[in-house]
UniProtKB/TrEMBL annotation:
InterPro entries attached to this UniProt entry: Glyco_trans_9 (IPR002201), LPS_LOS_Heptosyltrfase (IPR051199)
Pfam families tied to this protein: Glyco_transf_9 (PF01075)
Gene3D superfamilies, A to Z: Glycogen Phosphorylase B
Keywords carried by this UniProt record: Glycosyltransferase, Transferase
Domain of life of the organism encoding this protein: Bacteria
Species of origin: Halomonas halophila
Name listed for the protein in its UniProt record: ADP-heptose--LPS heptosyltransferase II
Length: 362
């Protein structure tokens, strides 16, 4: 086994090349790897979509773009050459596919570790049995366990697990983002800002816009009764602006102070803006997990499907800063209309008026 030192740190390649939310739930594992001693050089293989956030991640040293399954022979050849040139000591695949396993094997990476699932595991010489389909732990914990297994296989002591935030931003950046959102929306900084992201990017079962409107009206009324006057900031992803605009108009017609956050110049700019939220409300989708990495208070709405439960896709912010809602046990697993919105509104309003949350504003 190679003897590592500060002069010869391990070179690691971590793969999470799917959706934004999945990638954000890899940040605790990336933070754990960078906390090891000697401090590894960490590269990631990601698609172009998540690359802007990979470049912003403080736990990543190098970003390698994955052209995907349809890259063609030339694209696969170029990627293989780049992986060979990286001279990596280990490959950690958080979501295993045959193509990535084959690439790691062909690149000659000596230690290749992945979950022991599907026939893709044949390309790996270290496997960890996790049975994620049972959804017995949060996804980010499964990822942490794989990172820790990799360090153990390399003969490196496993550090203490990282505490939130997984994306630490200093107070100056917090203040800057508050100022940018205030300028973009015309909102004053004298009230709590409740960010509401009604879209799902097509990757998650979600509440309808009508349900989000009912929820917002109920939360708003409860906060007014408690002496707080919130402002609602409606956010949207690509292709979601029309629905977000319609929801914003519905809330204004109901007497709520609501603004649409204008489109950001890119994914990183949008992600950073979420640190301005006093609470971020969404379905189990990428922006919810971005807000959680920033350790903002979150309220997530989940289906009851085993592969998509609140436990499996739990946000990685501090426990006291997260709320989760899903259909009751006797409802259909994807029947989001079965969620008790009045109870959810009561919990959200109580959460926002609790001292531990009201003191978390940047």
């Amino acid at each position: 086994m190679t003897s590592f030192s500060d002069q010869r740190p391990p070179r690691l390649l971590v793969v999470r090349n799917d959706k934004l939310g999945d990638f954000m739930l890899a940040w605790p594992a990336l933070a754990a790897l960078k906390a090891a001693s000697p401090r590894p050089h960490v590269s990631v293989l990601v698609p172009s979509y998540t690359a802007p956030l990979a470049r912003a991640c403080p736990w990543i040293d190098e970003v390698i773009l994955d052209p995907g399954d349809n890259a063609g022979r030339e694209g696969r050849r170029e990627l293989l050459a780049e992986l060979k040139a990286g001279r990596f000591d280990a490959l950690l695949t958080l979501y295993s596919t045959p193509r990535v396993g084959w690439l790691g094997w062909r690149a000659g990476i000596p230690l290749r570790l992945a979950p022991a699932t599907k026939w893709a595991q044949l390309f790996y010489n270290r496997r960890v049995t996790q049975r994620r389909s049972r959804s017995e732990k949060p996804e980010y914990v499964y990822n942490l366990e794989l990172a820790e297994a990799l360090l153990e296989a390399l003969g490196i002591a496993v550090p203490t697990r990282p505490a939130p935030p997984c994306w630490p931003l200093d107070d100056g950046e917090h203040a800057r983002q508050r100022a940018l959102v205030a300028e973009a929306t015309g909102l004053g900084d004298d009230r709590p800002w409740l960010f509401l992201h009604p879209g799902s990017g097509g990757s998650a079962v979600n509440l309808t816009p009508e349900a989000y409107a009912r929820l917002a009206r109920d939360v708003d009324a409860r906060l007014h009764e408690a002496g707080k006057k919130p402002a609602w900031v409606i956010t949207a992803g690509p292709g979601e602006t029309d629905n977000a605009d319609a929801l914003c108009e519905t809330l204004r017609e109901a007497g709520l102070e609501a603004r649409r956050l204008p489109p950001s110049p890119g994914l990183e700019a949008f992600a950073r803006s979420l640190v301005a939220a006093d609470l971020f409300i969404a379905g189990s989708t990428g922006p919810l997990h971005v807000a959680a990495c920033l350790d903002r208070p979150t309220a997530g709405f989940y289906p009851a499907r085993r592969s998509a439960t609140p436990l499996r896709w739990q946000t990685c912010n501090a426990e006291a800063r997260r709320l989760a809602f899903c259909p009751p046990e006797d409802a259909h697993e994807a029947d989001m209309a079965a969620i008790d919105l009045a109870a959810a509104a009561e919990s959200i309003a109580a959460h926002l008026t609790s001292p531990s949350i009201s003191e978390t504003r940047p």
